[in-house]
């Protein structure tokens, strides 16, 4: 399935992410721009309620968007 046809809002719980303070701003912007330029999404490993999870990380305007849980897509 083409990446553009996957709507992360429909495939799981999503969150807009933003940099936490001045120090985190530069790496946040670098990651966001790299994802925008590549046109790809990233797979993110993060902690949620004491457990490690996988999610889909992509751009959403001037923010990063994390979709909790990655669905199995065939095709």
UniProtKB/TrEMBL annotation:
<keyword id="KW-0238">DNA-binding</keyword>
<keyword id="KW-0233">DNA recombination</keyword>
<dbReference type="GO" id="GO:0003690">
    <property type="term" value="F:double-stranded DNA binding"/>
</dbReference>
<dbReference type="Pfam" id="PF02735">
    <property type="entry name" value="Ku"/>
</dbReference>
<dbReference type="GO" id="GO:0006303">
    <property type="term" value="P:double-strand break repair via nonhomologous end joining"/>
</dbReference>
<protein>
    <submittedName>
        <fullName>DNA end-binding protein Ku</fullName>
    </submittedName>
</protein>
<dbReference type="InterPro" id="IPR009187">
    <property type="entry name" value="Prok_Ku"/>
</dbReference>
<feature type="domain" description="Ku">
    <location>
        <begin position="4"/>
        <end position="60"/>
    </location>
</feature>
<dbReference type="InterPro" id="IPR016194">
    <property type="entry name" value="SPOC-like_C_dom_sf"/>
</dbReference>
<dbReference type="GO" id="GO:0006310">
    <property type="term" value="P:DNA recombination"/>
</dbReference>
<dbReference type="InterPro" id="IPR006164">
    <property type="entry name" value="DNA_bd_Ku70/Ku80"/>
</dbReference>
């Amino acid at each position: 399935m083409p990446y553009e046809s996957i709507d992360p809002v429909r495939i799981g719980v999503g969150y807009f992410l933003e940099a936490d303070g001045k120090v985190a701003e530069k790496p946040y912007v670098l990651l966001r721009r790299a994802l925008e330029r590549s046109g790809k999404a990233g797979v993110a490993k993060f902690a949620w309620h004491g457990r490690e999870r996988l999610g889909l990380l992509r751009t959403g305007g001037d923010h990063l968007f994390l979709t909790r849980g990655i669905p199995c897509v065939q095709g």
